[in-house]
Write a structure and sequence with these properties.
Length: 435
């Protein structure tokens, strides 16, 4: 009981900490010493990994309220690729908001990095785009999960036009930009600079700032914090779906363990999964499939045949896949698809875990059936050794772990030392039959 209370307190403390971090703001700042005479700063946003709700929240917190009286410029120091296109477009809105206030925004693809997939749409919307040698940009074709060929083609055309407009608005090569979408083209830093897709090549962030006459300004660095990373984690269809599915199984599993802790943990996982589904604007079709999976799993806990559980898990896998679908939502899709080898590996693990769970539940149910008998009744089902020979319907004596009991033979004739099984007890007399 003490351990259960401790776990419950730990779970509630974690939730409280997440809420505190959330209310405290989404960014972590660090600044170099002030070198500029006008007191303005250059905000450097470090953008790495996939584009998700956490990175969008970071941009919102940092760019929505800045003004040109305190900020000289914004630099997006990036090595980003993949994610939700809707999140990338939201980040572009904050970039455009800063630009409309007279604050130039520059994107810089850091050494050994790239601006690819959903990240390309952020890099291209900046006033200036600079790249380190050896880096790349492109592979920007969008993907609609579960979409038809015609829908994919129309979506690709729309995003090609958007990418071309971004490049054109900042004086860059719109045709090359559109090719990153239509043909999923990938350009090296030198290729991008040579065709005017980028603003140039800079060996380092310091070199880029020097070329823009920004070296003398205080640098305020912005990084994602714990809450942003938390949003990135749950804002993933695979993670959200697995949380919902495991949460459902955990709640039903508590029916056999009789501890409130499993139920609390299960409901927390379901709540986090639903929060993740809301973040990605999940398809209602995927949620319906997950609900159906929950019903099938519930049936399994009633029938204990194994078939319903496997059917539920397979349906749940389909639900996870269709969480990312654009049907019934305003979600414009992903770049690239969020489902790769990790999704198929997770699917295999889920099915194998389901098989192990079937075996586990079967053992629990069998043990519960045996526990229906207590005291002397617990002898039912045990074996005994015959002491005195007995014909059918005659009485004699048997030995159970060295203890002698009077017995009535309900089966065929038995001889001394034969093994019998106890099928009933009336008072001090056991009813037995030959094994």
């Amino acid at each position: 009981m003490i351990k259960s209370k401790g776990l419950l307190i730990a779970i509630l403390t974690l939730i409280l900490l997440l809420l505190v971090v959330s209310s405290a703001g989404s960014t972590l700042h660090s600044a170099e010493s002030d070198k500029a005479g006008d007191g303005k700063v250059v905000v450097i946003i470090n953008l790495t990994g996939t584009i998700s709700a956490g990175s969008t929240n970071m941009f919102r917190s940092e760019l929505s309220d800045i003004n040109n009286s305190t900020v000289k410029a914004v630099v997006i120091n990036m090595n980003a690729g993949g994610g939700i296109l809707a999140q990338a477009l939201d980040m572009d809105k904050y970039i455009n908001s800063a630009e409309s206030k007279g604050i130039p925004v520059y994107s810089y693809v850091m050494p050994f990095g790239s601006a690819s997939y959903a990240g390309t749409y952020i890099a291209m919307d900046a006033n200036g785009l600079y790249m380190a040698p050896g880096t790349s940009i492109g592979l920007s074709e969008p993907t609609i999960i579960g979409g038809t060929a015609a829908e994919d083609q129309e979506n690709t055309a729309n995003y090609a036009a958007l990418m071309g407009n971004m490049a054109s608005a900042h004086g860059r090569n719109s045709t090359a930009a559109e090719n990153m979408v239509v043909h999923d083209t990938d350009y090296t830093a030198s290729e991008a600079a040579g065709m005017n897709l980028s603003s140039g090549i800079s060996s380092s962030l310091n070199a880029m700032l020097g070329s823009l006459n920004l070296s003398s300004y205080t640098r305020q660095y912005v990084n994602q914090n714990v809450y942003d990373n938390f949003l990135n984690f749950i804002g993933n269809p695979l993670v959200a779906g697995i949380l919902i599915l495991i949460g459902i199984v955990t709640v039903f599993l508590d029916l056999y363990h009789g501890t409130i802790i499993l139920s609390i943990a299960g409901f927390i996982m379901i709540a986090l999964g639903l929060l993740g589904a809301d973040i990605i604007n999940a398809s209602i079709f995927g949620l319906i499939l997950l609900l159906l999976a929950g019903i099938l799993i519930f049936i399994e806990f009633k029938t204990n045949h194994g078939i319903a559980l496997l059917a539920g898990l397979i349906t749940g896998i389909a639900g996870i896949y269709f969480l990312a679908s654009s049907y019934g939502t305003s979600n414009p899709g992903y770049s690239p698809s969020p489902f790769g080898p990790d999704f198929y590996l997770a699917s295999v693990v889920i099915v194998l875990t389901g098989i192990l769970l079937i075996v586990y539940l079967s053992k629990i149910l069998k043990s519960q059936e045996r526990e229906h008998y207590t005291g002397g009744e617990s002898l039912i089902g045990h074996s005994a050794s015959v002491i005195t020979p007995m014909k059918r319907n005659q009485t004699g004596f048997v030995s159970i772990e060295g203890v002698q009991w009077r017995a009535l033979n309900a089966g065929v004739d038995v001889n001394q030392n034969d093994k019998v099984i106890i099928i009933q007890r009336k008072g001090l007399t056991l009813t037995v039959k030959k094994i």
